[in-house]
Amino acid sequence: MSEQFTQEQGQTLLDLARATLIHKLGGDQSKIPEDLDERLKEPVFDQKLGTFVTLHIHGNLRGCIGSLTGEEPLRNNVRNNAMNAALHDPRFPPLTSRELEEVDIEISVLTRPQPFKYSSPQDLLNWLRPGVDGVILKKGMAQSTFLPQVWEQLPQAEAFLSNLCLKAGLPRDAWKQSDVDIMTYQVQSFSEKGH
């Protein structure tokens, strides 16, 4: 993915996510930069792009919610996904204000997903780019996605796709069937990593 956002713009998105959680959970207001509202007026944040907000505490996942496509301006998308990752990820209890002090926030901004054309399961394995491609797998009403960052835990394409099937509630080898749709996207991610 071409670097669409500068590090400064990425930092603005991280500041926005943290400010959103501080306002909602009751945290240290002094950690919200005074110029945040002004920085968010940049036209770049008007774009409608998909985002994921991932929360970690001491390197462990604590919440991750996102949208594959942007139905609203980027600033609103990040705000909503930050709230949802903190309070509505069904895998975790809602984040507490005490935990907020420990959380590292990561934001992934997605390119528009594109259909991935391949001729066979082996062809799919050969052409996916570990660490680069995020993958959406869809079969009927079942759908799931893994961000490119998931390749760090599942570096083998076969294991990556099998786990993606399980996440969608499908048999682990469903990715080998011809009635499965695969789409790929790339991300630009920004992280506080030990703010």
Q: What is this entry, summarized?
A:
The chain is an alpha+beta fold. The protein has 6 helices and 8 strands; from the N terminus they run ααββααββαββαββ.
Secondary-structure blueprint:
Blueprint: H1 7-25, H2 36-39, E1 51-57, E2 60-67, H3 74-87, H4 97-100, E3 103-110, E4 114-115, H5 121-127, E5 134-139, E6 142-146, H6 157-167, E7 181-185, E8 187-191
Antiparallel strand pairs: 1-2, 1-3, 3-8, 4-7, 5-6, 5-7
Helix pairs in contact: 1-3
The rough form would be described as globular
Q: Please compute the radius of gyration using only Cα atoms.
A: 17 Å
Mean pLDDT: 94
Query: Helical element count?
Result: 6
CATH architecture of the largest domain: 2-Layer Sandwich
Estimated helix fraction = 25-40%
Q: Strand tally, please?
A: 8
Which stretches of 5+ consecutive residues score pLDDT under 50?
Answer: none
Determine and state the CATH class of the largest domain: Alpha Beta
Count of the domains: 2
Largest beta-sheet characterization: 4 strands, antiparallel
